[in-house]
Write a structure and sequence with these properties.
Distance between the termini: 111 Å
Radius of gyration: 34 Å
CATH architecture of the domain at 11-131: Alpha-Beta Complex
CATH class of the domain at 11-131: Alpha Beta
Structural class: alpha+beta
Order of helices and strands: EEHEEHEEEEEHH
Helix content: 25-40%
Strand content: 15-25%
CATH superfamily of the domain at 11-131: Cysteine proteinases
């Protein structure tokens, strides 16, 4: 008998069994034995397609069943006491060991250890979508920065006693017609004043 999956999550968490209880007494007193067997797991390209029900394999296997590891929670010690550390993969691809307040870079081949306790995988398609969304956000923030710079220039012009340039009204709009009429009246008043002086 085998277990099959109907659907796949964006984030896959795998909990490795690291404690065993050889008797009911051990379970009652929470005194199980630590299992330190090293479990080999892939850092990238974990394919869950073979574990899907047949009817879902074609629908989900096309790039949606591939997972990449992005973090590992490690446990060292025994059932009664111990210490936790974590490996985390940065966006740059660099793996980092987090041990209390200390973080230090490590090589990928150092991530698989007998202390691995919980594995965190992200669906590759979802990760690519996240990167695309982050890129779009960066682009929008860049546009906002440009607008802020333009507003800053307008403010500087106002401080120097210069009128900030106004956006030209759209041709055919009421605003445009009003501007033309005001300019016409202004020119007529100026000419009338010159004639009166002469």
């Amino acid at each position: 008998m085998s277990m099959q999956l109907w659907s796949l999550p964006d984030i896959l968490t795998i909990h490795l069994k690291r404690f065993s209880f050889n008797s009911q007494l051990q379970a009652v007193f929470n005194s199980g034995e630590k299992i330190n067997t090293e479990v080999q797991f892939p850092l990238s390209g974990l394919d869950l397609a073979p574990y899907l029900v047949v009817s879902q394999q074609e629908a989900l296997a096309a790039g949606n069943a591939i997972y990449d590891l992005y973090a590992v929670s490690n446990h060292y010690g025994s059932m009664g006491f111990g210490h936790y550390t974590a490996f985390v993969k940065k966006e740059s691809g660099q793996w980092v060991l987090c041990d209390d307040s200390k973080c230090s870079p490590v090589e990928p081949d150092e991530v698989v250890t007998p202390g691995a306790y919980v594995l965190f995988y992200q669906q590759r398609r979802t990760h690519q979508d996240d990167l695309s969304a982050a890129s779009k956000l960066d682009d929008s923030l860049g546009t906002t920065t440009t607008v802020d710079c333009e507003e800053s220039q307008d403010a500087e012009s106002a401080d120097m006693g210069q009128a900030a340039p106004q956006a030209a009204p759209t041709v055919g709009s009421e605003e445009a017609a009003g501007s033309v009429e005001a300019a016409h009246h202004g020119e007529s008043d100026r000419l009338r004043g010159l004639l009166e002086v002469d």
